[in-house]
Amino acid sequence: MPVEPRHVAQYAEEGCTLVEGAFSPEWVERLLGAVERCRALLARGEVPPAVGSVGPRNPPSIHLTGEGGIQLRNCMAADRAFLDWLVESPAAALVGQLTGARSVRFWMDATFIKEASDAATATPWHNDVCTFPFTGEQQPSLWVALTDVDEGNAPLVTLAGSNRDPFRYHSPLSRQDVTLPGYRPWAELLARVAAPDADIRVWPARAGDALLIHPRTIHASLAQAPGRRDRRIAFTTRWLGSDVIWAPDALSVTVAGLSDHPAMRHGAPPPDDLFPVLWRAPA
Fold this sequence. Notes:
Elements: H1 5-14, E1 16-19, H2 25-43, E2 61-64, E3 69-73, H3 80-88, H4 91-99, E4 103-115, E5 123-126, E6 134-135, E7 141-145, E8 156-159, E9 168-169, E10 183-184, H5 186-194, E11 200-203, E12 210-213, E13 219-221, E14 231-241, E15 245-246, E16 277-280
Parallel strand pairs: 9-10
Antiparallel strand pairs: 1-12, 2-3, 3-4, 4-14, 4-16, 5-13, 6-15, 7-12, 7-14, 8-11, 8-13
Helix pairs in contact: 2-3
């Protein structure tokens, strides 16, 4: 396992760290194949049949992101290669070691495909936790490069240290007719990254490298450089550590089959039958 103390320290301090060579070329090839199979089915208007179970989730879907690319969501149970990666690869251990969690559970997945659309391929600044129905520090996103991502191929960028913010931002994706304590205006997020002294980090990566991103870390992606003709594919998964509890509010995203599930109790950790533990810290 390529996790080192420097990765743990950087994740805690900056809210993001790059683990080089986290996944082998064989895993990259298998994940790329799964991405292409699911994309082809969804593009034809077909919902990929489940080949396994990952509990109540929104169904697989494909979206034109408006960012010069395509996003596939909730495809984990739709291809055996995804499920094999979930339980056989170092992914869960990597998440647990970097976050300090006692245990780790999988939550959801999204794949981002950017295909040479020049300036339109930039992903706007945001962070993830603003719409999450869970609370806790250990809700990271594991971002795996399935293609090489140099500085001209839409690399991820982060605002270092924003993981230590004690509040959430009111996302444009949430209801705008509701205000809640503990949320700050979205304009403040945008102002922070536009500030002259903003500590912006750029994260080039090679296929198989992985970034772990804290749920409060403000991040985006750069655009693909004009004239690029290659693809940029990143496979991302969200995880739940041992400090995470179910705590939806009026600004949280609704998850089909989960938000109204009787086993999901406010203020309690996710139940094992819906979110099996995939990794535990050594005793």
